Amino acid sequence: MRINSTNLSEEQVLKKLNIPDFRHLSKDKVMTFFSMLPNMDPEVAKKAIEQFPVYASAVKEIVSDYMCFINKVLSDNEESVQNYYECCRLILSSLSKMLEQEDLSFDDKKYIIDRMLEVESHIAKKDTENKRHRAIIVSFVSAVIVSVIGGLAVVLGGNSGTSLPNLDSDNDNNKEDSDDDEYGSVA
Q: Does pLDDT of 71 surpass 80?
């Protein structure tokens, strides 16, 4: 049976999550729940959140677990990059010592210097690759966090507590009028 992809009913959501009711929504199923939010009837989503006993703490825990995972990935990457740099430093040191030999021909010295420049080029490429890798991870983490927050905002009606001023209001006070004059009145 294929589930309709728009305005999922409570029964469809529960079936997809394989739980009897939303009180059984566990931390490992929250991400699946979030991925279904855009296709869910808003009332079903609100009902789910009301029934989920530790919703906020579960979201915090998921984000925390995710950040620990990302930190581990970055740490592993950093260790790998440092090992690579250490190997490059050893190669450069060896090549530098070879250059100190007085019996080398001009062509031999040129060859060694070319190899040193090649190693330096590899270091620069690795540095660029590492920065790109970190940028991708930061972008991905940001997207996940924004999705979680956005999903929550959608479910809760998107009320952020901020409001825009009513430009058509006849209740402008004198202070606002003086501010308008300072910046140029809009008629």
A: yes
